[in-house]
Amino acid sequence: MFGFARCFGAYGGYGDFGPGRGMGAGMFIMGIFFLIVIAILVFLVVKYIKKDANITKNTINNGVNNEALNILNIKLANGEISEEDYLKRKEALLK
């Protein structure tokens, strides 16, 4: 019974840990640590999503440009357009 009373603060209100000892600072530091870890994870996820979106966007744009350039090359090869017209159109596509 004596140990039970001490654990619940019957002697000075601090239990077995004594005055000024507790988990206040430790819990605060651990909370800050977990906030930093969560912030880093969110940063990495956002960075990965943006990178993936840029790769997809560039792939789509390059696919369209490549298809248009292929058609333009075929038209030049078949003699449907002049070389001057080809260069103008190619420049416009590459902008």
Salient structural properties:
SHOCT domain-containing protein, 3 helices, 95 residues, mainly alpha, transmembrane, rod-shaped, 77% helix, membrane
In DSSP terms, counting alpha (H) and pi (I) runs of 4 or more, how many helices? Answer: 3
Count of beta strands: 0
Largest sheet: none
Q: Quote the beta fraction.
A: under 5%
List the domain count as a whole number: 1
Stretches where pLDDT falls below 50 for ≥5 residues? none
- Judging from the principal axes of the Cα atoms, what is the shape? rod-shaped
Main structural class: mainly alpha
Based on CA atoms alone, the radius of gyration comes out at: 35 Å
SSE series: HHH
Helix content: over 70%
Mean pLDDT: 74
How far apart the termini lie comes to: 85 Å
Protein name: SHOCT domain-containing protein
Transmembrane segments: 25-46
Keywords: Membrane, Transmembrane, Transmembrane helix
Provide a concise account of the structure shown.
The chain has helices at 2-7, 24-78, 83-94.
Please tell me about this protein's structure.
- Helix content is 77%, strand content 0%.
- The chain has one domain.
- The termini are far apart.
- It has helices spanning 2-7, 24-78, 83-94.
- The mean pLDDT is 74.
- It contains three helices and no strands.
- The radius of gyration is 35 Å and the shape is rod-shaped.
- By secondary structure, it is an all-alpha fold.
- Helix 2 (24-78) runs antiparallel to helix 3.
- This is SHOCT domain-containing protein.
- Keywords: Membrane, Transmembrane, Transmembrane helix.
- The chain crosses the membrane at residues 25-46.
